[in-house]
Every structure is written in structure tokens, then in C-alpha cells.
Amino acid sequence: MSRIRQIFLRRFRGIAQLDWAPRPGVNAILGAGDAGKSTVLDAIALAFSATRRDVFYDTDFHQLNADAGFEIRITLGDLPPELHDVERYGDYLRGWRAADATLEDEPAADREDVLTLRLVVGADLEGHWSLYSDRTQDQEGRDLSLPHRALIAPVVLDQSPATHLRWARQSILQRLAEPQFAVRTLVARAARGLREQAGDAGADAEVAAVVDQVRARARELGIRPAQEAQVLLDAFGIPGWNASLALHDDAGVPLRRLGTGSSRLLVAGLFHSRLAPTGIALVDEAEFGLEPHRIARFLRLLGAGVEGGPQVFLTTHSPVVVRELRAHELAIAHHNAAIGVHHITNVADAETGLDTQGLVRRNAEAFLSTAVIVGEGPTEVGLIRGLDNFWTDHRQNPLVLEGIAVTDGGGIPAAAARAAAFARLGYRTLLLMDDDRPLTPAERMPAEMAGVRIISWGGGQATEDALFFQLGWADILSLLAIAEQTWGEARMNENLRSYSNGQFDLATCRAQDLPAHRAILARTAKGQDWFKRIDFGERVGHEIVGPGWERAGPSVQAIVNAIWQWTRGG
């Protein structure tokens, strides 16, 4: 059955422009809030619409500019025989080449035959659905027949899955019915039976009195059809009658009363058992209503991890979903606010230079952001998180509201490679690192060429060197207090004596601000990993570096200022 080869959007809601060639299988669209993920799913559903009952509003136009209108084009390949009818649709057949994701208006031997569905809406808010090709623009537009549109219509698994547990237009149960007219026949029979049973109401004295009045007035007015009126059930007056038949449990309770998660799993199971080999599915917020252990099952039922399975478009804000999917099933949405252009990068097509699956599993949260800070190790990660807490205390937006994720780079050179990979995937990326083991030119160049902003302490300094040599003395004493609360005075004394050949202990170093004391404290802290934990680094950033920034030396001030500027878009 058909697969979407290309999505073309112009001026639709928050998207001024988008051109995307999705994969045949699962396409999990990732990105921060307002990246246009759900808008893409809505555009697909609208372009496939077979009902023509869709209502449009000014908010459907980009920046409310109704005069410019909006346009959606969805190009379909892998056409079923019904859509490959040359007599009916030959003028609209076009050519698609998957190798370079290019579309030509004329079909060709080396290209797949495709059709493009088009929806155009103007200031009059009227939708115009048609097939599209450049060579037919001077002709009266032709559209797919309604049966053919129904044939390719996607299954929409939204946050109201109960709609699929009744026989209704485009529900899974309706699409599973073979032949479909049998369901309509059954409904008609049920309606007739209900109407006949309701006729007994006419025997009620109060009802009969009302009917007699109606009959009498009808005779007076000469309204023949009402002269012999009787009481029967008006099928259209039954609450919920439009729901048609619905599934119930053995106690008679409608299955639409199931919990959201159970309903979604059941609907996904129905999709998997019958429609998946030939269908397209749209799933907004894949994690909605599902516990982590049920998410994996839900994704498998949709075809995740299966080559040649259904084409599924889903959105998510859950790192659990990201970890459960394969890297090539992910697509990352980015928005260039300056020009209003959206771009979706298929992870499978990006040359990250790394094991992308491993990158996804270790950094799932980062894939849901718009920008990434890679800390060389846990100290740097904690320091950034601590500074974030300090800035938030002073009424600045936390990094998460700026769309920024902080992740551990795993040391040098791994951190540089990970930062470069994120940058190649379209994320604005910063790398914070020590300088006691500088990057080699071969390690640094790929990151810089990918656009990574690299910040280090400089001068061959590790983070511990920068802190102990650059912070004010009162802040050094606070730094030692944090270490002592964790490691204890006895161990710190042992460490200091070992690294100073017995010359210094904690009390000696605390007694006076001397270069020698700072030097041995920095050397010992680095060698004994006093702060090599994220929670330690977080306390240092929040309680010491943030409040003591103005008292620090120029190197620390410059680094903290550079980090701050970058997090605010500079």
C-alpha cells in the first residue's frame, strides 16, 4: 500500500516552509516544544481527508496571514493498482528517486511512479483538494475518488483511542469489516428493532393523550401524514447514535470506558494484526497514557524495529520512547525562527561519525532539546547544572525552558566526538572541557567544522586548577567544606600529606591564603577526584562559582560569562 515519499508545507500554522522525505517505516519526530511536530501530523491527516468536513480558521495560516493562504502537498509512492490507473490518473503520475530524494514532474523508467495530493486553503477558508502536477496547472483540477481516498487514508491513533472501538467512519473496526456494507445492514436492522419496541410507548395513557391531540389538530389542518401519528423511536435521537455499534465487555460495559493506555494498546494491536502491512498510521504523543513498560509493547505493535513494516509518523517528548526506538527510526525537527523555515533531519541520513544508536541510548534526553551542552565529564556537567540553579534563583529562565540539555561527554576525546555528532544532527552545541589534556588538531577540527562552540579553562588548567587558583579565598574555604562533608577530614588529610610528602594537611592549608596551599589543594583534588561527581559539581556551581563569580579571577569570569551568553543564544 502507499507510502509517503515527500511532505511539502507552505505557510501552514507555525511552519512557513518545510520539505521532508520521510522513511518508509517508523518516523519518530523529535524536537523541543513548538518545533512543529504535531503540525506535520495534522497536515498529513488533512491532505488525506476523504470527508471534506474539515473546518479551517485564521489560526491555520502562518502568522495569521490568511491572504497568503496555505498549501500542503503529500507525495505518495508504492501505489496500489487502483491509483496506478493511467486512464484516470496518468496526467498526474510523477517520478520519484529514493537515492537522492528528488521528484520530477514526469515519470521515468529509473524513477518510481508517484502521485501528489494537494490541499490549498485561501482567505475564504474553503479547502480545495486535488491531485497535483506541474504539467496540469492549466487544466481543471482532478481529485482522487472518495473510495480511493478511503483506501489510502491513514489510521489516526490520537489521544482519544476509544473512537476506534466503535463502527464509525475511518475507525479501525469499520476498516476491518469485510464487506463494510454488512455493518451498515446490521445497524439498520438494530434500529428497526428498537423502533418497533418503542411503539409500546403509545399504550401509555399520558403519551396516548398527546398523540390524540396531534391527530385531531392534523385533521383540522388537513395534514394527512400526521392524522394517524404513532410513537416510534427516532433513531437519530438516540444519544450517541452516531457512534453506531460499539464493542462491549462481557458485563455490557463499552470498551471505550477502558483506560487510555489500555485503549491505545488495544487499538495498536488491531492495527498490527490486520492493517499494519498495508497502512499508514499517525500517532501524536506516543507515550500518552502509557507506563514505561507498556510503551515498548505499544511501539512494537506499531512496527518499530521491523523492516518492511507500516509507515508510522509519531511524535514524542519521552526519553523512554527515544531509547526504545532504533536510531534510523528517529527524525529531528528544527526551526530557524529568523526565516521561519523548519527542517527535519532523518538520523539515518546524518553522518555523525559515531555509533548513533549508542549516542541515542546514552543521551535520549538531549535528543528532545534544541541545543546541547556537552560537559567533558561529571564535574563539568555538575558545574553547568549548578550555574543553572544559581541563575534560576535570580529569576532567569532555567536551561530546560531555553530548550537546552546538558549531557556527559565521557572524557576526552569522546566528548569532542559526541559534541560534533550533535552538531551534525542540527543541534546548537557547546563543549565545556578541561585544558590539562588539550584536544589534538585532529580531535578539535571535526567539532569546530560541525559548528561546536568549544570552551575550556585554558593555560593547561583542569577544572580543579581553575577553581583553586581563580576563586576568592572565602570561596576556596567553602569549596573545602563541600569536599569535607563527603570525604571527611581524615581522608582529606591523608590525601594532602600523600601529595605533599607530608608537608601539608587540611588545617595548614586553611590557615592562610598562599600560592603553595592553592597549588597542593588543586593537585590533590584533581588526583583524588574530590569533585568528580555530578552532584558535587552541581553544589560547586550553585553555592560557590555562581555567587562568587564577581570575586573570581579573569579566567573563571570569562568562562562563566561565555557559558551564560551561549545559553541565552549568544
UniProtKB/TrEMBL annotation:
<protein>
    <submittedName>
        <fullName>AAA family ATPase</fullName>
    </submittedName>
</protein>
<dbReference type="InterPro" id="IPR051396">
    <property type="entry name" value="Bact_Antivir_Def_Nuclease"/>
</dbReference>
<dbReference type="GO" id="GO:0005524">
    <property type="term" value="F:ATP binding"/>
</dbReference>
<dbReference type="InterPro" id="IPR027417">
    <property type="entry name" value="P-loop_NTPase"/>
</dbReference>
<dbReference type="Pfam" id="PF13304">
    <property type="entry name" value="AAA_21"/>
</dbReference>
<dbReference type="InterPro" id="IPR003959">
    <property type="entry name" value="ATPase_AAA_core"/>
</dbReference>
<feature type="domain" description="ATPase AAA-type core">
    <location>
        <begin position="26"/>
        <end position="322"/>
    </location>
</feature>
<dbReference type="GO" id="GO:0016887">
    <property type="term" value="F:ATP hydrolysis activity"/>
</dbReference>
